[in-house]
Design a protein that fits this description.
The complex is a heterodimer. By secondary structure, chain A is of the alpha+beta class. Chain A is built from seven helices and four strands. Chain A starts with a helix and ends with a helix. Chain B is 41% helix and 16% strand. The chains are: A alpha+beta, B alpha/beta. Chains A and B meet through helix 2, helix 4 and helix 5 of A and helix 1, strand 8, strand 12, strand 16 and helix 16 of B.
């Protein structure tokens, strides 16, 4: 199946929904690892919108990326509650553990605020991280 | 007979290894039930064996727990002081029921509110909600009954119930615990709202950072569908934008647009989702409605609390604190009680320096202010806000100048860009705070040219920069479209006021 066919079928799957844009973009991001220009054009055609309108939506949200990144992603919470528990002191070591192999992303809150510092890899959450703990999470990502 | 072990499947418990513990108990021959969390989050994974609790259990502790020799025994769970002192109405089922069990839900008075709402009719439902004194739990504290009544009276055949589950504030996790631990109560609350206003469709807008909550809701909705029909509920997942927790930007996001804030009026109650009358309520508001609509629920709710803050508030104790977790209590508690008596002080054992109440947009409170009662009006009078009732404790190693800068940085990163005070003010705010740290700045090359002879002859002093920050904060507070730009000055100015020594 070509990318165009696949995106058409994703759009068709959400056709019955009111305001289907975000569910469609989530599916595209999950399947292709990004929502690139070509995808934007295809979605625009399917939803009878301009490319500018679709690009405006895609570029607004942190979850949609313009190019795929094959590296594993580790999201580290650096919001207030995790700062209060010392996440900032773990960042240097985390960066060196990640190197070029793992992509580190800052997230503002995973909802584990009494048990920070916290991190997320895929749908797996980690709490009570210290320097070694976070480095280990990154190495195993 | 195999013994029954109960372990939470809340996201925090799972992050602490609850799944491996559950598997180890099953391997040891026990029957495992996955329940919601009691909210004593510092103890997770907490194991409930015949009502006796074992805290922080790891797979290697399983044998000792089962034969009664474990040193992780904490006594009867019901006798834990953290739980005993609470008044759990919205979180009455926490720790006790299986989140996706319709049987457990019905056995704990589930669906009573909805059945009664259908019997007494829309007008009486709204009257009872108003009489309970319930105010929006998302942060703004708007009376829920008035909102529902506005939507009920609004013209239009198509109406919506939108649940705001975009719980982006740091230190808040009560929405997450409700969705993961008691999803049927949220669905029941939405169905009651639908009865009250005549809505056909409901959306739960959940942030993408909550994968467990999304999964639970998606499993719960089909199970509950026949019980709430013809009303329908659908889960929609956010895409990492903090500002979508603001109700009008949430509505834009649901419609498939950029999550930009809308100017009000028109109120969403009159022209909300797709231009139709819409109830937008927080998870906890809707969940509380399920309790309030039961026989006698409204009167019970209204009898609790203080002043115009009625009922109970699920307070979330977080940050550098010994006993963090969910603490539902009537309004009126002081921060001193919450931080010291209930929370046990800092986890690091160092003195408490500051407490931020209400998430990233809430003020930093100094220990001198710890006697202010937990009440919407009392907080407003102290230039602070309750918000979604998350409290973050900081010890004396915290750098409040850095936290103030972070508040501006966060606002800059998450601003939707629609209004100027927030979009530009946040970035300028970071720069001004940096200059305060640097002690002001000298005249630049342009300012020294003869053409600029009207400029002050000296550069700016630290005091000048502080005056500039104060002015900038006033502009952001008074001229921003929504709470993101409008409330960012709270953490900034409170930090500057109480800890000026942290600003260089």
């Amino acid at each position: 199946m070509t990318k165009a066919e696949r995106i058409a079928s994703i759009c068709a799957a959400h056709a019955g929904r009111e305001g289907p844009m975000l569910p469609i973009l989530h599916d595209i991001q999950a399947e292709f690892g990004c929502v690139d220009e070509a995808s934007e054009a295809l979605v625009a055609a399917e939803l009878n919108l301009t490319r500018a309108e679709v690009h405006g939506v895609v570029s607004f949200y942190h979850d949609f990326t313009p190019a795929a990144d094959p590296r594993p992603v580790v999201q580290i919470c650096r919001a207030e509650a995790c700062k209060a528990r010392g996440v900032e002191a773990l960042i240097d070591r985390a960066r060196s553990a990640a190197g070029d192999r793992v992509k580190l992303k800052t997230v503002y809150c995973l909802g584990l605020c009494s048990a920070g510092p916290a991190a997320r890899v895929g749908d797996r959450l980690h709490a009570w991280l210290d320097e070694d703990g976070l480095a280990q999470v990154i190495e195993q990502a | 007979m195999s013994r029954l072990v109960r372990i939470s499947d809340d996201a925090l418990a799972r992050a602490c290894g609850a799944d491996a513990v559950a598997a180890a108990f099953e391997q040891a021959g026990a029957t495992v039930e996955r329940t919601s969390s009691y909210g004593m989050l510092w103890m997770e994974p907490l194991v409930d064996l015949d009502g006796e609790g074992y805290s922080f259990v790891q797979p290697e502790d399983v044998v000792a727990v089962l034969d009664g020799s474990s040193d992780k025994h904490i006594g009867a769970i019901a006798d834990q002081p953290f739980l005993k002192r609470q008044t759990r109405l919205t979180f009455a089922r926490a720790g006790k029921t299986r989140p996706l069990s319709l049987e457990d839900y019905a056995a704990t008075r589930g669906w009573e509110g909805l059945q009664r709402a259908r019997a007494i009719g829309p007008e009486t439902v709204v009257q009872e909600l108003t009489a309970s004194g319930l105010r929006g739990r998302g942060g703004a504290g708007f009376p829920a009954g008035i909102k529902w009544d506005t939507v009920r009276k609004a013209a239009g055949t198509r109406k919506y119930i939108v649940c705001n589950a975009d719980e982006g504030d740091s230190a808040t996790f009560a929405d997450r615990m409700m969705m993961e631990g008691d999803p049927f109560q949220l669905i029941e609350g939405m169905a009651i709202a639908a009865v009250a206003v005549g809505a056909q469709k409901g959306y739960i807008y959940v942030r993408s950072e909550y994968p467990d909550a999304i999964r639970k809701l998606r499993a719960a909705i089909p199970l509950a569908a026949p019980l709430i029909a013809p009303f329908e509920v659908e889960v929609r997942v956010g895409a990492g934008a903090y500002v979508c927790g603001e109700e009008t930007s949430l509505l834009n996001s649901l419609e498939g647009k950029r999550g930009e804030v809308r100017a009000k009026p028109p109120l969403p109650a009159l022209e909300g989702l797709f231009g139709c009358p819409t109830v937008v309520n927080n998870v906890l508001t809707l969940a509380a409605a399920a309790h309030i609509l039961r026989e006698g629920g409204a009167a019970e709710y209204a009898a609790l609390g203080m002043g115009r803050s009625k009922g109970t508030m699920p307070i979330q104790i977080a940050g550098n604190v010994k006993r963090g977790g969910l603490y539902e209590a009537p309004f009126g508690l002081t921060l001193r009680e919450l931080v010291h008596d209930i929370g046990g002080g800092t986890d690091s054992g160092r003195p408490v320096k500051a407490v931020q109440v209400g998430g990233p947009l809430g003020a930093y409170l100094h220990p001198d202010q710890f006697d202010i009662p937990f009440d919407y009006e009392a907080y407003a009078a102290a230039d602070a806000l309750i918000g979604h009732a998350g409290i973050t404790v900081f010890d004396d190693s915290a750098d409040m100048g850095a936290m103030a800068r972070f508040a501006m940085e966060f606002c800059a990163a998450e601003s939707c860009g629609k209004c100027t005070p927030c979009r530009l003010g946040s970035t300028r705010g970071v720069e001004v705070i940096d200059r305060i740290h640097a002690g002001g700045r000298a005249l630049d090359a342009l300012e020294q040219t003869p053409q600029m002879h009207n400029m002050p002859k000296q550069g700016r002093s630290r005091e000048d920069e502080i005056a500039l920050l104060t002015d900038l904060c006033e502009t952001m507070r008074d001229a921003s479209l929504c709470a993101l730009g409008g409330f960012t000055p709270y953490p900034v100015m409170s930090a500057l006021k109480h800890w000026p020594e942290d600003f260089g």
